[in-house]
Each structure stands twice: as C-alpha cells, then as structure tokens.
Amino acid sequence: MRRPLSVFTILLALVVGLSHVPLATAGRNAGGNYSVYPRVVATVIAVEPRGLAAIQTREGATYEVLKGTTWRVGDTVECEYAARWRVRWQALDCRKTS
Fold first, then answer.
1. CA torsion angle 43 63 86 77 (round to 10)
2. Is the dihedral of CA 81, 87, 89, 93 positive or negative?
3. Residue-wise over 22-41: b if at least 16 C-beta within 10 A, else e?
4. For a surface tag, which of 1, 22, 81, 98 has the fewest beta carbons within 10 Å of its beta carbon?
5. CB atoms within 10 A of CB 82
6. Is the dihedral of CA 31, 34, 36, 41 positive or negative?
C-alpha cells in the first residue's frame, strides 16, 4: 500500500528539482554578459612583472589591466568593459590586435 505513495513522492521530487535546472543555466550563455560600452583601443605603455600592464587610450586615459602573455610595450590592444568585475584591473578585458 505504501509503495505507490513513495514512488509518487520520488517522482514529484525529481520533477520539482529538475524544473529549476533551465533557470539556473539560462544566464550562462544567454547573451546577458556583454557590455553596452564601446570598445577601447589603447597602446601598452608599461608591462609590470606581476602580470599587469598599463595601457593608454587615444584620448589619454590610462588603465591598469591584466596583461597577455605576448604583450610588449608599444603593442596595440582592444579592450571591452567586463560585465562583471571585482577589482579595478579586471574592469577591462583586453586582447592584442597588433
């Protein structure tokens, strides 16, 4: 007599538990992690030993960002504002263009 009730309870728990999976994974690749700010083109002006680089935009603004492995002083980089950042040097996501 208890067997149908326990099977129903297990099936109900599975349905309720799995119904939240699409909601939890929807934000990962749904396109919500993009920036509304324009891209920044800058020149590397200093490479620091701790994995950071100083860059300067054409307008004269300077930023400190995480450097790429092949960056050298004088290289041109293109940066996008990161949608989520915790510290100042992670605000821009940069890639070398030249």
1. -10
2. negative
3. eeeeeeeeeeeeeeeeeebe
4. 1
5. 16
6. negative
Question: What is the model's pLDDT at position 78?
Answer: 92
Average pLDDT over residues 12-35: 60
Does the model's pTM come out above 0.85? no
Q: How far is CA 57 from the centre of its chain?
A: 21
Structure tokens at 24: 């939890």
Q: 65-80: per-residue pLDDT in tens?
A: 888 888 999 999 998 8
Q: List the Cα angle 63/69/75 in 5-degree steps.
A: 55
